[in-house]
Amino acid sequence: MMLKGSKGKIAVIVAGIALMPAAMCMAEVQTDVGGKHYRLDEKGQTAELTYLSYDSLNVDAYSGELDVPATIGANGSQYQVTGVTAFACVYCEGLTSVTLPEGVTRIGFGAFSDCPNLVEISLPTSLDNMGDWAFYRDGSLQQASLPEATRRVGACTFAFCTSLAKVEMQRGVKSIAQHAFYYCSALHEVVIPGSVEQIGEYTFAYCSALTKVQMEGGPIAITEDVFEGVDVSACTLIVPTDQVEAYKEAEVWRDFNIVDGGYEGLQEVADDERLPSFEMKVMGTTLYLNVIGDAPALVYDLQGQRIAVAASHSGEHRIPLSHGQYIIKCGRDTRKISLRIPSNP
What is residue 283's three-state secondary structure? Predict the structure, then answer.
């Protein structure tokens, strides 16, 4: 099934999937230890769990309960296991659970995607880099708890995880990328930490069982497609006491059933800790926007009417505007610009 609104992005990703394993094999040193496959960094004395083969043969690479050790012995040396490579467990039909040890900091692109019988995952507190599509289309996965070190929920990370009913995100998460929970049709409630600055397109689209969203911070600028396919008027939005009025005025959020949560909003992170969101330049009456974060940029006039939307990670947008002042919102970032028509000499 094609992710809505992403045909161009999907084509690029598919091309990358086809080419990446071949490129990786050129430089890697691999070994098998205890029935598991590892890529070794002999200089750094580290290892990453990897795939048997990037094709249908990988279906038998791992099965049952996969418990990855913190260290392995290979070639007369000890290696610390620090990651999981891209596609490590892709297509593993018999895989039912995964436990990663402390010290693992990275899960690669699509590492556990298309594992239809994967029910349970245990992630270490050291995990700070979760690749896009990491658990894509794992239809039996029931819940996930993301550690505090994790800063970004990647694009399509849990898309089509149709049994996923519960997700715990800690207050370290700053960004939830596009399609992260797309079509998680069993997800009935979600808590979005106050640390989150950006929410990408279609993030919770077609989460048809969603009935409660709790926000720990103020409203984030998002587009309608974030909750496409969700009856937001029947969905309770619990917000901080000091942010109720802001949510009632915020586009998309104001359509929810807003409830005062009886708590104060968490303080936002300092500006110098923010994720980059967008770059812009003005030439005459043309605005050029390059969105580099996970949230789209929304352009408004001073009357609050939305003029344009610049999608995330999709190159430079050329937006012609008239003489006047405009507001640009992207996640928690808001900037004001003025465009003036040059006077004739």
Answer: strand
